[in-house]
User: Which sequence fits this backbone?
């Protein structure tokens, strides 16, 4: 399989991400570790343009951000592997990367659930993440059973493609409640900030708040609810992302 040679300054995220590179050209063992601790759903990184750029067509080095839209990360975020029990959420609708519902710790591997962004993957692979919730074959959300996607964050375009825009009548859980509280606290903080400035929210500030709200709008496959029970360590096992070459896991440094 082909390799992508980084064309961006490295390290691209030196304060939050440590990339552990493969020891040789034939070993797909690159991974990323967190350099920071975050609470559940804390902001890890923004998917800014630049360095991100629109991709004319999907490849194993792109991330899907709409029904027919894909982007090139053009950064070390390309080295984040797949896990069925991920430490991160790639919210490509709002162009942010957040800690998962368990939060994030220094030294923890940075992973995300590929089908949360990818509807159909050109290079499927067998996952060996070692999680008790491991889904097995990973080929995109299109090929997964509904029960495999329960309790998993899915981007808006994935939910639309799967016909999952509704929610299960009034279902709720503690994590959804916590998320709403996070938004309320953020709104109060923003109000205080604007009061101190003596002005109203600008377009950028309003967009940030709307982005936070959108995360709560049915982003999980079982409506408002998501799984918050610990399922053991987020084991990485064999580097499934790199074995597949999907989304740049086999990128050469």
Assistant:
């Amino acid at each position: 399989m082909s390799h992508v040679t980084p064309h961006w300054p490295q390290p691209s995220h030196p304060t939050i991400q440590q990339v552990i590179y493969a020891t040789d050209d034939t070993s797909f063992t690159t991974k990323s570790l967190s350099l920071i601790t975050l609470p559940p759903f804390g902001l890890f990184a923004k998917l800014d343009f630049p360095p991100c750029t629109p991709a004319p067509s999907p490849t194993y080095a792109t991330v899907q951000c709409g029904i027919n839209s894909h982007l090139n990360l053009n950064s070390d975020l390309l080295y984040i592997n797949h896990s069925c029990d991920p430490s991160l959420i790639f919210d490509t609708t709002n162009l942010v990367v957040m800690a998962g519902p368990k939060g994030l710790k220094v030294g923890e591997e940075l992973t995300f659930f590929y089908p949360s962004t990818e509807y159909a993957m050109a290079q499927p692979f067998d996952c060996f993440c070692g999680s008790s919730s491991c889904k097995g074959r990973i080929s995109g959300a299109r090929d997964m059973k509904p029960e495999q996607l329960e309790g998993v964050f899915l981007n808006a375009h994935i939910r639309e493609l799967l016909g999952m825009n509704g929610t299960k009548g009034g279902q709720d859980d503690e994590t959804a409640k916590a998320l709403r509280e996070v938004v309320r606290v953020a709104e109060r903080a923003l109000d205080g900030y604007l009061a101190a400035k003596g002005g109203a929210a600008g377009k950028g500030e309003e967009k940030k708040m709307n982005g936070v709200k959108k995360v709560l709008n049915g982003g999980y496959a079982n409506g408002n609810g998501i799984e918050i029970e610990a399922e053991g360590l987020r084991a990485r096992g064999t580097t499934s992302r790199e074995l597949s070459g999907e989304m740049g896991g086999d990128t050469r440094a």
In short: The first helix runs from residue 156 to 162.
